Amino acid sequence: MSLPRRIRGIAAVSAAVCSTVAVAVAVASPSVAHNDRGASLPVVESLRQKIGDASTLVPPRSVQESSLAGASSANPLDVLVVGGGATGCGVALDAATRGLRVGLVEREDFSSGTSSRSTKLIHGGVRYLEKAVFNLDYGQLKLVFHALEERKQVIDNAPHLCHALPCMTPCFNWFEESSELFPTLARNGKDRVLKGTVVYYDGQMNDSRLNVALACTASLAGATVLNHAEVVGFLKDGASGRVIGARIRDNLSGKEFETYAKVVVNAAGPFCDSVRKMVDKDVQPMICPSSGVHIILPDYYSPEGMGLIVPKTKDGRVVFMLPWLGRTVAGTTDSNTEITMLPEPHEDEIQFILDAISDYLNVKVRRTDVLSAWSGIRPLATDPSAKNTESISRDHVVCEDYPGLVTITGGKWTTYRSMAEDAVNAAIRSGNLKPANECVTHNLRLMGGEGWDPASFTMLAQQYVRMKRSYGGKVVPGAMDTAAAKHLSHAYGNFAERVAEIAQNEGLGKRLAHGYPFLEAEVAYCARNEYCESAVDFIARRSRLAFLDTDAASRALPRIIEILSVEHKWNKSRKKEELEKARRFLETFKSSKNAQFHDGKHN
User: pTM of the predicted model, to two decimals?
Assistant: First the structure.
């Protein structure tokens, strides 16, 4: 069955639009362009110097907590952000670089929710372009062009974590064959013959590490950021009823304290309604949650430098298959769901993805090849006239339906920066705040991106060795091979040398899991410099091992916990608790190792 003509048309238009932007993406830009807003401001120059200095240290977590607890009614924060995902950390960075006094709390870890469970694409949106053209919807068209501009900024601001990625759309009744670019693409089958493809450019990212970079950059800019810290109640002015702060519980120590702020920004993603109900239990919901499931397959399912997009499957959904960190990520679904802390993919959703991609590949698609599978909850803003999640706009909403509490929700990863800008503008109006300058995040490099070059890994390979502790306790040297060097360079940017030094000087150069480039040194580095407070923080957000291979992550846990216990001075009880919690977390990732799929057609 041929793809509908209108889908081919959309792919062609998308190719033209996106390829134009991709050319711009390839051009390197300075940390802050000379003609950009606030380029010569002292706050920007100071932050540039910190980010460019590989010896820079973020303030320790204990200092951050003390700073939050010290924000009194007489000396409040300007802005308190609730939520440490992409939007929340973006708000903290934006506000701090405007000279405002900022705090941020996240009840789990930075990027522990939706922001770590994305498709890993920084995209303009083929679906939105289709609606814009065929429904004559100018609002959807504005979304596309705005997202394309923001996509360029995301890639420019974190070049070590983001890159342009060509994506192929198969067409079965036009053009010449294109199998060389995507060798596993089936040429025949299902009563159709592949005639050609359309290739367009999108962006790809390491989402949770980008989120952590945002948090750390905000911290260097002066924001007080605290993960594993939960809002348990709001403080209100006795006379006006305005929200003037929050009561916070440190979920690591159990300690509670109050922090005061002129404005609170609710950036809790799918949980923003829960935050709003803490202020007003009768508030009307804003969120229509949608489940997005993704699976990880071996690298041979896709070529290294080319993605595949099927714009419309048999039931109308879009499916991607993309190379990512040496493996293949495939997804996604888009269905109604309940809001939970640890969403799990359903087996029928996994089978749907396998079915969809098997229609387009000449590779036998097997459920046993699924190395990891996860579900993320998209916080779509509710449209009262919408009949399903597909017709709900992915645009964001900023509102203040209770004095002192500004809520930012909806949107997507690609536009996090502009979402944050809108939220900070609303907070300034709400609290009558006095920023020192306008927004300066448009072309502001994040931690790790300043001075980074794609060839930086060669220096690591040439100048460092990996000192590994053998089973007998003897420390022996090993090469800093290309795979390890490239991984460190892309994961940590211009701070990669610090990780390599730990691997060399502290005997932590051994790989954590066979077949993956993650090193023991990264555990120690992240504990010291990236607010990595638990085993799950590391396997899910600092490295991506849980997302890439749940079985490998499980095998690596004992060593990860041992290193973290040294860094954080854990006792035996805490180490046991960490192991149990991490294994429960991994059980929610439905790989072939921990899922029941006896009746599946892809066994």
Answer: 0.90
3 state DSSP class of 475? strand
User: What's the confidence (pLDDT) of residue 316?
Assistant: 74
Which amino acid is present at 390?
Answer: E
Alpha-carbon distance 462 to 224, whole Å? 38
Q: Which positions of the chain have pLDDT values less than 50?
A: 1-35, 174-176, 383-386, 391, 597-600
Chain mean position to CA 97: 22
Residue 597 has a pLDDT of: 46
Query: What would the DSSP string read from start to end of 96-128?
Result: HTTT--EEEEESS-TT-SGGGSS-SEE---HHH
The alpha helices in 324-451, defined as continuous H runs, are 347-358, 416-431
Q: Are 109 and 228 in contact (CB under 8 A)?
A: yes
Contacts of residue 63, defined as CB under 8 A and 6 or more positions apart, other chains included, come to none
What integer pLDDT is reported at residue 384 of this predicted model? 35
Backbone angles phi, psi at 391, to 5 degrees: -95, 5
Q: What is the pLDDT of residues 377-403, one digit of tens each?
A: 999 886 434 455 554 555 789 999 899
Q: What are phi and psi of 322, to 5 degrees?
A: -135, 140
Instruction: Specify whether the CB–CB gap between 69 and 257 falls below 8 A.
Output: yes
Angle, helices 482-492/520-529, rounded to nearest 10 degrees:
10
Q: What DSSP designation does 318 have?
A: -
Nearest Cα residue to 119 out of 301, 296, 290, 332: 332
ω into 332 cis (within 30 of 0): yes
The DSSP 8-state label assigned to residue 184 in this structure reads: T
DSSP three-state, residue 203: strand
Q: How far apart (Å, rounded) are the C-alpha atoms in residues 335 and 529? A: 38
**Any idea what DSSP says for residue 75?**
S
CB-based contact 93:66 (threshold 8 Å): no
As given in the structure block, the two tokens for residue 116 are 């770590």
pLDDT of residue 591: 86
At residue 179, the pLDDT reads 64
